[in-house]
Amino acid sequence: MIGAEKHAWIGLGGNLGEARATIEEAVRALERLPSLKVEAVSGLYRTSPVDASGPDYVNAVARIGTTLSPMEVLRLLQAVENDFGRIRPVGVHHAPRTLDLDLLHYEDAASSTPELTIPHPRMNERLFVLCPLAEIEPQWICPGGEPIEARIAHIRRIDPTQKICRMED
């Protein structure tokens, strides 16, 4: 890679088809991209849908190294989603999906455009992001300055509808 490498964190999720196998294969697809270096991947978590209906999700978080810009990373993630049959129904948010790859955080970058908002605006509210992220980044400080374990405890207190459990390897 040419240029200064940056770190980014990717949320992986899916709840259609063989979601566990899809997430595992998506990680391998990311590893094959020459412009990304997968540095760490959490275990897999089974989670209840948040603000949606449908079957439970399988989620994970990965840390990557890259010299690409945040927008270039987003475009690569969307291409991988498309390769896995991702369909985005017009006007439907939180629809069940084969694969969802979210750019959660990109080192020191911030963006607030219709196409990309980083840090991800709801990452502090979702156990399906925070729990796998805490596994690979136990010292993480959430946007807003709160340690990740304190944030997880807070979400568990205020929103008992969010169910999450680590899947066996």
Task: Write structural notes for this entry.
This protein is α+β, with helices and mostly antiparallel strands and 169 residues long. It has a single domain (6-166), classed as Alpha-Beta Plaits (2-Layer Sandwich), CATH 3.30.70. 29% of the residues lie in helices and 25% in strands. It is built from four helices and eight strands, in the order E-H-E-E-E-H-E-E-E-H-H-E. The strands form two sheets. Strands 1, 2, 3, 4, 5 and 8 form a six-stranded antiparallel β-sheet that branches. Strands 6-7 form a two-stranded antiparallel ribbon. Strand 6 (111-112) and strand 7 form a beta hairpin. Helix 3 packs antiparallel against helix 4 (148-158). The chain is globular. It starts with 5 loop residues before the first strand and ends with a strand.
Strand and helix map with partners:
Layout lengths: L5 E9 L4 H14 L3 E6 L3 E3 L9 E10 L3 H14 L16 E7 L4 E2 L4 E2 L8 H10 L11 H11 L5 E3 L3
Helix pairs in contact: 3-4
Helical content stands at: 25-40%
| Total discrete domains | 1
Query: How would the global form be characterised?
Result: globular
What is the helix/strand order? EHEEEHEEEHHE
Specify Rg, calculated over alpha carbons. Answer: 15 Å
Could you tell me the number of beta strands?
A: 8
Q: Largest sheet, if any?
A: 6 strands, antiparallel
CATH topological fold name:
Alpha-Beta Plaits
Q: How many DSSP H or I helices?
A: 4
Q: Indicate the CATH architecture.
A: 2-Layer Sandwich
- In the predicted model, the low-confidence regions spanning at least 5 consecutive residues are none
The amount of beta strand, in percent, is 15-25%
The named CATH superfamily? 7,8-Dihydro-6-hydroxymethylpterin-pyrophosphokinase HPPK
